[in-house]
Amino acid sequence: MSSSSVPNAKPVKTTDLHIGAAEPGCKKRDPILVIDNVSRSFGGLKAVDVEHLEIPRGAITALIGPNGAGKTTLFNLLTGFDKPNTGAWMFDGKPLAGVPAFKVARMGQIRTFQLTKALALLTVMDNMRLGAKGQTGENLFRALIPSLWRKQETANEAKALDLLARFKLDTKKDDYAASLSGGQRKLLEMARALMSDPTLVMLDEPMAGVNPALTQSLLEHVLNLKSEGMTVLFVEHDMQMVRHIADWVVVMAEGRVVAEGDPHEVMRNPAVIDAYLGQHHDEDIGEDSDEQTKHVQDIKELLDDER
Ligand SMILES: Nc1ncnc2c1ncn2[C@@H]1O[C@H](COP(=O)(O)OP(=O)(O)OP(=O)(O)O)[C@@H](O)[C@H]1O
Ligand SMILES: [Mg+2]
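Above: query sequence and magnesium ion SMILES. Below: predicted holo structure tokens.
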């Protein structure tokens, strides 16, 4: 995303989220997620190794870090799409380790994917229906009483239409998801996530691959989630966007949390630049390396801006 697509109006930041020094694993005043000793290895590689991490409720937290830092793997673990080798975590006071993905979603912790998972061969409306909580047929008693599930169907449809209108997808409700642009699919994924009235919305690179014409509205949607009382945890590489909308930033590198803080402070932390540079110190190739250098440059520009 180019910096020009970041609006001038400054969103209201939520502050005073942590207790004590802003350091990796620091306590939050009101955490919605509390993670302890969560690790996941692939062969010899420890993709995630998080000792302690708390995500503040009612705020927007950005999870940043170089490619391969373990951000998506951590999302997969926390949402039940993958199983950790060790560890436990609590969502809203309830232990979640071992809880399958569909139950995690029903409990109010919902996520979107780095590569969108909108079901291409279903219509936009059917994708929305799949996002609804308490599907008919799941509960035998309800399924046996048509008036109950019809009522729910009608309510779901009305809610879907309302959300689609907010995301400017209402005119596409009968189109196959396959016919949408990449950005529209990201919007559909976010709209679908909201069908289940989540408490915590986890977005894995919501802006990646989105055409600049749509980034503005996506960004506003993310801010709206917070104003409607939801907690947001999102992965993003665009530092401008992180600084603009995040209340809190968690930095991962090589599976670990290496820094935490508010977006202005955290970018000044040498551990953050190290995280982006460190990975490619002794490697000498590739687009990744160019990309990391760009991230470091972005951070430096942001710091210059603030001076
Ligand atoms: N299913 C898997 N099998 C083997 N290795 C994996 C698997 N999933 C992830 N990894 C490895 O784990 C590490 C962390 O990957 P992950 O996708 O979590 O990183 P990321 O921080 O999301 O990166 P990006 O910013 O590129 O999306 C990487 O080295 C990756 O190659
Ligand atoms: Mg990822």
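The chain has a mean pLDDT of 87.
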